[in-house]
Amino acid sequence: MRVLGISGTPRPGGNTEVLLDAALEPFRVAGWSVDRVVLSQSEIHPCTGCDACRDGSGCHLPSDGMEAVYRAMRTCDAILVATPVYWRNVTAQLKALFDRSYALRDEHPLRGKPGGAIAVGRGSGGGQSIALTIIHNFFLSAGAVCVPGELNGVSAVADRPGDIADQPNRLEQARILGRHVMAFAGKESL
Question: Domain spans of the chain?
């Protein structure tokens, strides 16, 4: 079994990646293959809206980090997406990935696959619920199934790098989300 974890942060090693890694931990323990896409280490050009992909031949933009994302989407059995909240939204890098995924719409590589969402914001009203909704909308548009953690998804408050390490409850919430997504992928009961 294979899980795809996408970190939407443009800053390497931050709170978003820490939470994503906590959510991926149950998969590693269970022996799943883990594909991580870290957008701080990948260049993904934004969609130009050219509609050239409508003929079914895929995206016509020059080769970039999306090629690895396309491959991982096709081969994964489950997906986790994590983002910091920027201006009450997902990051521009993650939005570019979502938009470019449109090129695979006829292929439906995520159809029926379970997905979990994580959002990290500066304050308790920092837009985390909006970002979770945006990730869930991506899942639904791609045919994936939105799997909750203990609640809707994992919503965390962190301001400075490393803040999340002092929040064991949030780290456990990420692990719970990972276990729920993994259980759904295996069609096991929670």
Answer: 2-185
* Distance, CA of 80 to CA of 156 (rounded, Å): 15
Give CA–CA dist 41/162, Å, rounded: 19
Residue 48 CB partners (closer than 8 Å, separation 6+): 61
∠ CA 46-52-57, rounded to 5°: 105
C-alpha distances out from residue 28 to 6, 33, 136, 144, 178, Å: 15, 7, 24, 22, 10
pLDDT of residue 152: 86
| 98 membership: H or E segment, kind and range | helix 92-100
The topology (CATH level 3) of 2-185 is: Rossmann fold (3.40.50)
CA dist 158 and 178 (Å) reads 20
Bridge-based pairing state of the strands 33-38 and 145-146: unpaired
* Tokens at 45, concatenated: 């050009």
Span 20-53, pLDDT tens digits: 999 999 999 999 999 999 999 999 999 999 999 9
Task: Report the pLDDT value the prediction gives residue 149, as an integer from 0 to 100.
Answer: 87
> How many Cα atoms sit within 13 Å of 186 on the Cβ side?
15
Q: How many residues does the chain have?
A: 190
Quick: pLDDT tens for 142-174: 999 999 987 889 999 998 999 999 999 999 999
User: Residue 90: which of 124, 123, 120 has the closest Cα?
Assistant: 120
